[in-house]
Each structure stands twice: as structure tokens, then as C-alpha cells.
Amino acid sequence: MDLQDGEKDMIVMYHKFGYELDGEKKQIDSTMVCLGDGKMQTAMAKTVGLPVAIAALKILNGEITTPGVQIPITAPIYEPILKELEDYGIRFHESEMEYLGYNPISL
Description:
Blueprint: E1 10-21, E2 24-35, H1 43-60, H2 75-86, E3 93-97
């Protein structure tokens, strides 16, 4: 992406997780907003490059030892990476709310 001087990019993420626990439907909303710092430190670079770099360092330092290509769906992989991302201002905010179903707007 070619940004002009003074321009910044922004990434906005919204995840909605619906689940059932002990017969009760629940929902967690997770949001994240990341603002870039100009041409060289874009939000895209931060949210793609930093997790990869953090994971690489954790592998090199022996903190992640799972062999082969992994997707970050297990807590021992994603939790330490998410925690370290907070040091760079990248943080997901979670809130529990009333279960709204798949898409309440179209009902």
C-alpha cells in the first residue's frame, strides 16, 4: 500500500463468538483497532509482521517447541504472542453480552 506523507492506515477487527454452556447460550464480542504510524510502520505491518516476528523469536528461544507448521489455535502458542503484542499497543478487548444469534439485523 502506497501511503502519501501524513497518511496513516487503520485496521478494525470485530469477532463475535456465540456458544452454549450448560444449556445457556452466551456471546463474547472481541474488538481491536490498530492505527499505523505512517508509511514505514503501517497498521498492516504491525498486525502481520509483529506476530510472525514474535513467534519466530519464541521458536528460536525454545519457548515454542511444537514441531512443523502450526496455526495459532492452541493457547500455548497464541496466548504469549497476544500478551507480547500488548507491549506494541495491539490489544483485543473482549466483552460478554446477551446472545444475539448469528445476525440479529436480518431477522
